[in-house]
Amino acid sequence: MRSLRFGAGLLVAIVLHVVAVRILGELSPAVDFFLVVVLFNAVDGNLVAGLLGGVAAGLTADALTGGLFGLHGFADTVIGYSSALASRRIVIQKAVGVMLLFSLAAAVQQALIVGLRLVLLPEAALPTVPGIAARIAVVGLLGYVGFSGRGYFTRGLERWRSSRRARLR
User: What is the rounded CA–CA span in Å between residue 121 and residue 11?
Assistant: First the structure.
């Protein structure tokens, strides 16, 4: 079930990425849907799922964005594993904590990408500081909204199940 949920999330991220590139143009790098999918996969604390999810989403992002292949793959793998490890050690129950985790993960991902570009590319085109700040803010906001929405959906589903059980008795 977990891999099916991750696959559906990755498919949604691909569609949203393509639509964002088409609509937003130059502003599309401010939104990283693949990182959000990796973090939602890793927030449950499963290290292997975080690692493999980071590899799959990162390489998919590399394939769609162009540039150096494996750059996002490596960064998202590190982020997926470390976020799952952090979620094991820290109990995150509030949406604000999830927003902080997502924002911190986006900042670390950007630091890894900038570092790898500086090391691997002779004339690296680095992202601007406002672009990095926008990406951190957007990923944190998407994490907040997604976690809050997931809780709202789960509570609604439980209410529906309990009312259905009551009608069946």
Answer: 30
Nearest-5° Cα angle at 132, 131 to 136 = 120
Expressed in angstroms, the distance from the first to the final Cα of the chain is 30
21: how many CB neighbours lie within 10 A of its CB? 16
The reported pTM is 0.87
**Closest by CA position to 67, among listed 129, 137, 136, 123:** 123
Q: Which residue's entry shows tokens 């502003």?
A: 27
What is the per-residue pLDDT across 17-54, written as a single tens digit (0 to 9) for each?
999 888 887 767 778 899 999 999 999 889 999 999 99
- 124-156 in b/e form (b: 16+ CB < 10 A) is eeeeeeeebebbbebbbebbbebbeeeeeeeee
Segment holding 146, helix H or strand E = helix 129-168
Q: Which two tokens stand for residue 142?
A: 């998407």
